[in-house]
## 1
Amino acid sequence: MNLNLLNNVDMKNVKLKGGFLGRLQELIIDETIPHQYGILNDMVEGVPKSNAIANFRIAAGEQKDKFYGMIFQDSDVAKWLEAASYSLIVKPDPELERILDELVELIGKAQEPDGYLNTYFSVSQPDKKWTNLRDWHELYCAGHMMEAAVAYYKATGKTGLIDIMSKFTDHMLTVLGPEPDKKRGYPGHPEIELALVKMYKATGDEKYLKLSKFFIDERGTEPNFFETEAEARNEKGLNIMQELGYKYWQAHLPVREQTTAEGHSVRAMYLYAGAADIARETQERELFEVLRKLWDNVTGKRMYITAAVGSQRYGESFSLDYDLPNDTIYGETCASIGLVFFAQRMLQMDPDRKYSDVIEKAIYNGILSGISLDGKKFFYVNPLEVAPEVCEHRVDHRHVKTRRPGWYDCACCPANVSRLYTSIGDYMYSVSREGEIYVHIFANNSANISLNDVNVELDVKTCYPWDGNISIDVNPEHAGEFTIAVRVPSWCLEPCISINGQPVNISENIHKGYVKMKRTWKPGDKIDICYPMEARLVRANPRIRENAGKAAIQRGPVVYCVEEADNFQGLQNIVIPRNVKFDEKYDKDILNGVVVVEFKAYCQEDWDSEECYSFDQNRYREVKVRAIPYYAWCNRTPGEMMVWLREEACIEI
Amino acid sequence: MNLNLLNNVDMKNVKLKGGFLGRLQELIIDETIPHQYGILNDMVEGVPKSNAIANFRIAAGEQKDKFYGMIFQDSDVAKWLEAASYSLIVKPDPELERILDELVELIGKAQEPDGYLNTYFSVSQPDKKWTNLRDWHELYCAGHMMEAAVAYYKATGKTGLIDIMSKFTDHMLTVLGPEPDKKRGYPGHPEIELALVKMYKATGDEKYLKLSKFFIDERGTEPNFFETEAEARNEKGLNIMQELGYKYWQAHLPVREQTTAEGHSVRAMYLYAGAADIARETQERELFEVLRKLWDNVTGKRMYITAAVGSQRYGESFSLDYDLPNDTIYGETCASIGLVFFAQRMLQMDPDRKYSDVIEKAIYNGILSGISLDGKKFFYVNPLEVAPEVCEHRVDHRHVKTRRPGWYDCACCPANVSRLYTSIGDYMYSVSREGEIYVHIFANNSANISLNDVNVELDVKTCYPWDGNISIDVNPEHAGEFTIAVRVPSWCLEPCISINGQPVNISENIHKGYVKMKRTWKPGDKIDICYPMEARLVRANPRIRENAGKAAIQRGPVVYCVEEADNFQGLQNIVIPRNVKFDEKYDKDILNGVVVVEFKAYCQEDWDSEECYSFDQNRYREVKVRAIPYYAWCNRTPGEMMVWLREEACIEI
């Protein structure tokens, strides 16, 4: 069966028009991206030094200095460049374009004559190139630079960075490959696999696809490349991540033999995304099936309700099925972004809302919590339960911050957030080979979609994610028969859709979560969608220990939390009553405008005594509890936060 | 106010006669101590190598070999010797005494001519002696050897080891002290402070007391000795335990300025015990008050219901008030033993059941869980909640074992358990300066207690801890007026006491938890105590997050748990019903004879689906749950275990 089912509609053809995602995109373009540029140029006070752009000047010989930063500091520049390119597509800006042009030129000057590009090694350790693919991120940085190259090209039509990366790829091909005189290696941190496929699709040059497939095929095979590489460095055995072994790098088995999500969660997500690209471009069903099982394992057994993944700090990694602690979670922002990349690719091969539901969950919850409302501060770790003094005093909680920092020594998350939301248009629509239009993500926007016979303009108006009413004005150039398939989110219990006032029979027309409306569409047609949103309780599988007897509040796609700032200390003592009634109201003055959910609940009373244990019954009082969207937490006074709350057991035997 | 209030009755005068503690003592004497001797001599298969006794032979020049083991391996021998000495007191054994005599002789041969005693440094690094008091445990080992010396003397009348340690002390006094040419140092791991006081009390020689006080007084003062010592070793800043700093060693402040229990929990307990000894021997009320506040902090805000202390793995340490997670607890067996040492000393200065209640809690729960029912396997870490696959896959749970190992590379806990239970007689009675007899701990035993004017024999019969009926036959040599003060455990809600059938008015006669019965006692008098034991629910202070909405079962002094072996997987889904009825029955065939507690409860049903989240209500079924004493957990098939169970909220507003 063919895996070429859908092609996503390019963001160039999708224009957000205000609304939640539109304003978020504007914030990132107007505030975050310039702010990040300042940080990369070390012009912002009060944040860790970056030196990321200076490193390129040093490598280019324009500045005399030592390299500074993480060994993968180059990737910060690449990701910023990618995000900035996307922002040019959304909002042309000659000044910004000029900055990008100069940056690309600088990158070209930092490139060595043989095509090698990596400022750390060029400047600090030129004799160590390619000696530690496991740890030293050369291919990782190259991958991000390739993604930037393709984005820059899409935004400006200029191939400067693509040319640079083409030359670097040629150089790589002299070092890496199946031939006896080359290294049969692959990157410790997957990333280049998906990036090479972007290069392939942009240029048509198969060398990129071959190299990507090579990386996917070699990974985890025997003899283990990381082991042989380590022996060559005179290392005895694995000297890092011993508790996880090669699972950390998803190199414990060949990719096609992997069945569970293991190891470092960002590496895993990028790997699965790249492997999905290869499955599609080479039409390999076996690999697709492997990835589908991995998808089911990640999202069915190892994913948080906020679409966070990565349940333990050690190795920033997965642990085991149903192990989802709320307070010691890792939940790296980058990992949820990687999950979206993975979802996107699976979706195009297998049109099923299970993928786009997760994209929606991530963009409104676990990724969005990674950026502050003002766009300038970021979370690496996204907990679902926080008590500040515990984070301060318990070393096993120290990875959980209670304020978003302005930057990090390892700054992978901020630019990842930027590039995702600036390119969010890429995730909203697809077109199938049969010329069906798929609508995955809802936002205020207009889209220009080319089918074989006709161009279709869609104008979508909605107050998503606060309101589930969506109107779609359908304007084909001329009347024509085609299908519009609209996702019905799995959280929606009573969806209604009508076309020009005529109800659509959803149950008869729904396929894998998409209502497929095939008709002769005419200019002026209107689809009215009503996905009622109301705050409801979600429960967790009883196998998830930490959530036994608890419930979370979700409204539409938005997961809610309670913060000390609105309530009190001791959130663990709140008990959601049996017949809780939620009061839901949009308040434009709170947290940049959110629907606030309030309800009467019980709260276990403090004890008079300070003692730890007592035979007495607990007492409760009534309280009013205010819940706000999880993504908006930690934008006010630091304090406790909790997503999963105790629920009064409703036991009817 | 005088701090010389009570003196404990020596174990020589207390003979356990079967019963729970008696049989436990027999097990340790007959099984555990010989087994441990075998391990120390590397004669037991399947456990890590010890080499502890061989190290002494090597140091004595009798064997040519390298030192093997931890830098403090000598302490394993010392603690074993101490336990074996106590066992001689309980059960004379000429063969065992001969072994001890030979061991003492060997230790003497391993002692260097100048008095120095430590096989690691004598054999491996003689030029490094006294260069790292913070880390290298020379004083710690000396302390344990001193405790062994005093025990050996008490058991045999032989002063051989006391003489060896006297010589070592003289040597120490040439190295350590306030004089300018000496080190104003103190041990990284407190232990010698309390041991020196034992030497002082056994010999009357004030040099021991002075040195102990010196250690207590110097600790944590400025300039920080560990810092200056580290600088002398060319170390830049603190190179271990940086997350805790000097709190790890309770050297962040002078002892008299410390207000909360911080750092490594065993170090803390031994330090507080040693400081309590100094407070008493020097009649320093200020120091006593400091320790009372520390006691209140430890037991009031940082102690588990099982009397475990130490809430985090990092540093095996305390974290903060009310932070008591059940699954990532450290709860080192040695720390609960140290807590008993601390309690014992405070009790003698301040007759208050708050101390003896904790001793009772520890000996029936958090210490006892550290030894298997067959006496040959030991726990270091004592969790209150376990799921084996989580311990296997989560690195932040790896310190929790799901089977007791036979031994450890760091083997401090096993011999600690042995020496505590063999000397349990020391903790059962005290006599005040006014000649009152205090009865702290109840067990089948007879005790010979000397008051000023009369000797009193007490014969106690009880089926404690399964039954709270205790009969005490009081037999003074002749009639005489004195007081017998009997502890009323704080868990007992309706105590009854009668003398010769006449009820005692408890409320009129109780003082700090002890019912003081002053009368003219005659031979043949009989005290009948009834402390009704029934399984009851205990709740935790609402500030203890992990226990919100949960309850534990306690019966008398025994805390209960549920194990998978008796129930099922998924213990987190059990809900104790509102009006739970407990069925309690002693079963001699289970777990060496325990009262089993059974009850009908609810259990959240498994989901049909494997998904993580759902809007559906949870469903419950009725189940029968069996709880067993916590100390007896993990003696059958490994599986889940839980102390704190969900409780149906009983909300009446």
## 2
Amino acid sequence: MRFDETYSGKVFIKSHPNYEESKAVLYGMPMDWTVSYRPGSRFGPNKIREVSIGLEEYSPYLDRELEDVKFFDAGDIPLPFGNPEKSLMEIETYVHTLLADGKIPMGMGGEHLVSLPVMKAVASKYDDLAIIHFDAHTDLRENYEGEEYSHSTPIRKIADHIGPKNVYSFGIRSGMKEEFEWAKEQGMHLYKFEVLEPLKQVLPTLEGRPVYITIDMDVLDPAHAPGTGTVDAGGITSRELLASIHAIAASGVNVVGFDLVELAPVYDHSDQTANTASKLIREMILGWIK
Amino acid sequence: MRFDETYSGKVFIKSHPNYEESKAVLYGMPMDWTVSYRPGSRFGPNKIREVSIGLEEYSPYLDRELEDVKFFDAGDIPLPFGNPEKSLMEIETYVHTLLADGKIPMGMGGEHLVSLPVMKAVASKYDDLAIIHFDAHTDLRENYEGEEYSHSTPIRKIADHIGPKNVYSFGIRSGMKEEFEWAKEQGMHLYKFEVLEPLKQVLPTLEGRPVYITIDMDVLDPAHAPGTGTVDAGGITSRELLASIHAIAASGVNVVGFDLVELAPVYDHSDQTANTASKLIREMILGWIK
Amino acid sequence: MRFDETYSGKVFIKSHPNYEESKAVLYGMPMDWTVSYRPGSRFGPNKIREVSIGLEEYSPYLDRELEDVKFFDAGDIPLPFGNPEKSLMEIETYVHTLLADGKIPMGMGGEHLVSLPVMKAVASKYDDLAIIHFDAHTDLRENYEGEEYSHSTPIRKIADHIGPKNVYSFGIRSGMKEEFEWAKEQGMHLYKFEVLEPLKQVLPTLEGRPVYITIDMDVLDPAHAPGTGTVDAGGITSRELLASIHAIAASGVNVVGFDLVELAPVYDHSDQTANTASKLIREMILGWIK
Amino acid sequence: MRFDETYSGKVFIKSHPNYEESKAVLYGMPMDWTVSYRPGSRFGPNKIREVSIGLEEYSPYLDRELEDVKFFDAGDIPLPFGNPEKSLMEIETYVHTLLADGKIPMGMGGEHLVSLPVMKAVASKYDDLAIIHFDAHTDLRENYEGEEYSHSTPIRKIADHIGPKNVYSFGIRSGMKEEFEWAKEQGMHLYKFEVLEPLKQVLPTLEGRPVYITIDMDVLDPAHAPGTGTVDAGGITSRELLASIHAIAASGVNVVGFDLVELAPVYDHSDQTANTASKLIREMILGWIK
Amino acid sequence: MRFDETYSGKVFIKSHPNYEESKAVLYGMPMDWTVSYRPGSRFGPNKIREVSIGLEEYSPYLDRELEDVKFFDAGDIPLPFGNPEKSLMEIETYVHTLLADGKIPMGMGGEHLVSLPVMKAVASKYDDLAIIHFDAHTDLRENYEGEEYSHSTPIRKIADHIGPKNVYSFGIRSGMKEEFEWAKEQGMHLYKFEVLEPLKQVLPTLEGRPVYITIDMDVLDPAHAPGTGTVDAGGITSRELLASIHAIAASGVNVVGFDLVELAPVYDHSDQTANTASKLIREMILGWIK
Amino acid sequence: MRFDETYSGKVFIKSHPNYEESKAVLYGMPMDWTVSYRPGSRFGPNKIREVSIGLEEYSPYLDRELEDVKFFDAGDIPLPFGNPEKSLMEIETYVHTLLADGKIPMGMGGEHLVSLPVMKAVASKYDDLAIIHFDAHTDLRENYEGEEYSHSTPIRKIADHIGPKNVYSFGIRSGMKEEFEWAKEQGMHLYKFEVLEPLKQVLPTLEGRPVYITIDMDVLDPAHAPGTGTVDAGGITSRELLASIHAIAASGVNVVGFDLVELAPVYDHSDQTANTASKLIREMILGWIK
């Protein structure tokens, strides 16, 4: 299950060498070809791996070390440049295999659209799935200038698929009027601007349920995540996002998969955002893979 | 009233094509020739327009869309390079015409000195004018190394003009001792370090009064606005500045004009500060142009 | 024929306001979704326009001024993000219309694949068409990882279309062994490493023929064009490229269209490459539009 | 006592020209040769001096001006490139001389290891010395890959020297498990994540005691200090660090020396972090040199 | 004659501490307020000094060392921000004093307009003065948008002053048609595109004459000098400019003063252009101060 | 013989997976702790590997493909931070082992001092060894501020070791007077400024002899290699350096090892220099490993 590419040798710090023995699998989805604004997130996964060597293996937040968790870094899924449909199919197929093997999928984007096939695959395994979604943007469009599969549509598509009432969005501060109205009408749980406070209220209601979590780096304020495609002022701090990860870790939800998307290294001076993304992934692995 | 330059075609998103039908007019004042430290704010207005295409037209904060407000983007006022006095005169003349036409002036700097002729023109129309001023710096010098018209003097000059008691400064964290003392002696309302809390106390006292608002981007912390001429640690977040704009929108003051100055794109990696400036302008248009 | 978008107002310096009266039409093809390495050329056309305001209108090389040539800047062709096939079709349709109206097409990329539909459209009008191609790369692959329409295939596709003997490539210094062999076997005119010398030998043989010219910015050495997707050491200077443009201008070929592609502003510190691209376009307009 | 180098002419704003009359001495320790990750802090001291010219001389926080404090800027201590042991010895010797002359040492790094010889020298003068340490990292390793003198060991070495109970670390969010355990077992005062709150509790217990304070810039969040060797998300704001400096100034501790380390200009876009470092030093001088 | 400013301590490597004993004087003219395009050259002189510490003191081209030449670095002339006329007057006054003291003036810009008052002062001392001018731009406008003193006019003004036949421009590749025509009509020696070859032909004709030399960094190709206000493709290499300096050194002309202008550090990634400027100054000092 | 580090997985394109079967071995020497100016070359080797994925495997210059040469990428030699002597010893030991195994050593720096232990090891195997050295700097100092092992001394040390007459330096344009004199007196072959022409004269005289070749990236002009520690104007183009590599390939010398040093990625905007370094290594492998 490791992709055999010349350049996939780089791995996340302390990843386990053996797929079979691992409980969770980390993989990159280096696709950015439907973004309308600033491309570049295709280089996100490898950059996260590269800077992970600067991380400590121990989390003083969770009092746990990376070698306590067996996870395998499978490299990047090879995706056909400029062909979104085929790319999405290959991601979905890959995640189906992971799930069939009993692995917890941990994805790194790439643009946010890559989360859609993952969530679909996960939803096919877990009937009662809920989605927790951290983002600056609603991502609730039905289509973008006619294209159905776009970086602006993934949450809408998954909400249509599993029912809007099972989707919980946090930190949203940008979108079309119609998107906010649709969310309201459909009973989707969309929390504007705030993250940690509404999350703490929601988590008890999800106790015991399988939950997939998708984090768009731009939920962070541009001060904390300049290296992303679409920055939007007024976001949360990396401190609040860390606390949100820890709140989920301390709750009774059953994390069955997650991803972190939209790191775009070319806009990221001196790897500030990449280092943050890398630390977030360490905390998610240590907090959510029990 | 649109300036006829080859390059003035770029306009702020959703600006109205017709001057006569518009209630408010957006214009650039691309002057930076009196700054002592880092020039470059001359490119601020066009950069704000350029990145505005990445904005949503809808504000989830105010539940309002840009097409609900008729505003005209007039381009940049042509200013003679290296001639501050003539530049200030041309700005003042221009704003007088806007006011005579019943338009609300919305300016984009340029260095902070460009606000002075605008405020003078506005003060000639509104007897009871109050100034709300967000800034890291006092800008209260009488002169700067002998030059009376400098980026360090605009608030002093307008305070002398309309009376210090009618000037309210927020977020100030840098200046000469004499400037702070002068403000105190003259009864100017200068709030050090803090913005939102004192603003909430001041706004009820200004109810019904005509108010001109000038925002220097450096009131934001360097983390939130690196792309400005003179960064100064210890500032507020973009979240607090957005909340301040919304507090003014919700108050009973009569906003008769405003500007946002000191965006300097060359110091702004990946347009972080420009995107923030652009969003701030959207919120001011949606919140303040009733 | 000008695209009606909010942000298309920005135009190349001294472009003519009227389509009908213009002899040539400048347009952007902001597509970069099939590139395998570094995306970003979608922002090339608008950046070229933006920096064109720094250009003089007069060429001391050609002793001619921009106002001596009537050309219309039509803005960017709207292209569906992430959909290469549809994008190529829309470009081809657009250029057919230009040609039907008797205009000379002058394109700005975007990735090199955008040249393919343009060349096809031009070839359908001119039976005897020859292609002059400046590039670091062969671009002669049949497909790239299975995808037929890729940034690595445009010259192969057009060679297949009009016959390899009608294609003249200069400055080539990178490609697969098979590509060089194919060129040789097929009688394509592929000149390795050198540009000006072989061009001077070729031009007399093309006298009177209709010629389409496509310039990939990476034919320049990385020192002269860092702001492109795929830099490759050992290229020519901007001086040699200017001399090549002037050699074509002085020859007897009939330039029936041209493009300049692969400027990627995000890799271009301080607009060095953009300024060069902008000057090259001025020289092509002044030298080739008689 | 000023180092006689060609380039040491650049001095911190308003430093006093005379060593003998000065109460405190500012000096640079431009060493970065034991860092394992990103070098470059050797250029920190001169960059701080350079940008200090943009500072106001007056602190509105402390209502005091730089000319009220006589401090001498001695330039950078000349250190042998690539020789850590000799470098540390020269620093220690230098600080011994300062202390013998009755001066308060104020150091600028350089990597954090440079603080060790300074603290040792200070400890030899003050029996009852306590260390206040602001940092993202524990710096409590016994050695780093076998090397005892490393950027990861200075706090451990000084704790061993003066007793762990006399060391107070704030804001720590990164380290090996063993380091946190060692701190706990030894009774060191290590406060995780938080700074201002625990500091306010600690300060009264240190009243009257001689205190040396060492600030690693990376205690700040990467949003506030991108220009450092090892960024780590989840840190404090520059506002909180300023408040901490002011809390110490208002307390009854006896500041007998301090330093600020790990500014690395090459990772610092547009001097954001350098400007912050420079302001922090102004506040420390004004608040701590009575 | 050294300007007494806080930050003027930084000096060019191996400058002599004593004004009286020095044969030549180096000074900065940090003015950039009339430039129409990209400001920032005000920081040029100090950046040149800063990076000079990386230079060797010996020139293998000229077999001479800096300590063989007594030159004094006087720091930057204090200039009133935003006031070009007063700035030019102060420069002229300063250079008159230098000449009266028998010193050879060596200036660092700043925008090119700063050369005008220097050349005027020098012309008042030497009847038979010739100007050698290296530049991409003609700088021959009578005025720029009505302003007579602009970065586009200095060569015109000095040509009017000393007679166009005494001005020799090399490397010119940009300007208005009228400027080239004016030069031709007036008998000015304007060499387009080329530098070293025409220079070698001109030098013998100037043997024994007093010559002032002004170098605009943008005579270099953008590949060799990206860090300048107005880059223009098709320029010469740094190698050719070095050879030109050495050709002048080897000729019989009498260099009575010179300057190097238009280094703009903010556009200069990693100090590439600054290092080149610094080396050029070393070579001019070693080659031209006999 | 592959170093077992978490991050050493990244390998040069088309390197062979098996040490035993390989003829040549590529290894990194990530040391930069003795440089006096700008550190950062420790990250050179991994950056070269990373960008190698953008290379074609085929050289149109040499008509050869990478898979025709069996070479093993061993990763980076683990070196103790801040300890030059121990680092040099470990490099020497490592290369002795390579040579004992019959492998051709191909090193990537790191600072230039890393070449010294390699050259020593190679000299112990080949009695008649000659050194070919491409560099901007002499590197002939006996010591640097007292330190014998410094980035300024490696060529002197090896010249002392194998005899100055066996050392051939090309492109030298910077050094102390004493260094140039020493070279002359000792009969070392030092060619100032020029590379290709003197190389073509020297190569026939070395026919059949074992030759070690060391390339400092700064032999290139800063336009062609901005990403290095010490840039120096007036260097050669990447085209000339490629031609020099090909001249050696075509000559009768016996290349028994080589290295390329001083790539410093942090000063290298958009990987321009790294891409060039990577291509140079491909050409050396294809041209020199027969």
## 3
Amino acid sequence: MYANDGFRELDRQECLRLLAKATVGRIVHTRQALPAVLPVNFSLDGEGSVLLRTSAASELARAVDGVVVAFEADEVDPVAHSGWSVVVTGRASIVTDPAQRARLAHSGPRSWVASPQDVFVRIEAELVTGRELVGGRRMYGLDLTP
Amino acid sequence: MYANDGFRELDRQECLRLLAKATVGRIVHTRQALPAVLPVNFSLDGEGSVLLRTSAASELARAVDGVVVAFEADEVDPVAHSGWSVVVTGRASIVTDPAQRARLAHSGPRSWVASPQDVFVRIEAELVTGRELVGGRRMYGLDLTP
């Protein structure tokens, strides 16, 4: 974490409140030893986890199941030089419990294309960090880790 | 890459044209064995690389110098279910050549907070991939690698 980096660090509750406003984020993982980042839409499951919905056959589902990933959402105004960024870091796993799957089919994230082959991926919010960028403060090197 | 994933793959020129429209992206690297993602603003240096500007003392500068990173920018309309995402993957390095630094001080990305301690970080666009999301097509598991 930077000293005097000009950002206000957000607490977990503030981060989750901001995440709840967002509809699209980015899942970050390692793929073939290279960093990979994929935009996805998502929903929050209570305050404990991020939920994605993807095809059971997708590379994403295979790549992240059981792996620690980062999930990032942000809202930045490049004119006002203000905004926020939140990162959830935790283990991703495909939801296999039938009761959970049935519940998420109703309350979970909607697919932009309905597919009977969808699975839900849960990212446990083990680490939730974020920073608020106040107008005019430095954007570069925004440090999202505690 | 997905078969029939409903996305239009963008060629390098299309990707760079879209990147040129964006002002903020996200740099993805590994930090303490965990995926890390940081929003940054940026500029393109010709068509060959992405340029960031950060504090010489920043953890970002130390973390990415000499490392292969991913840089992502996107523009997604969650209502229209349309947008694009571009990822540049390549080695990041701090610009040390005095002539280049002098040039970038004028033509490179602006800092939102002026600092005499700034350095420029160049990400070589070794791999440039992107997808266009057509309205209503699946967002999940957008695969940004070739």
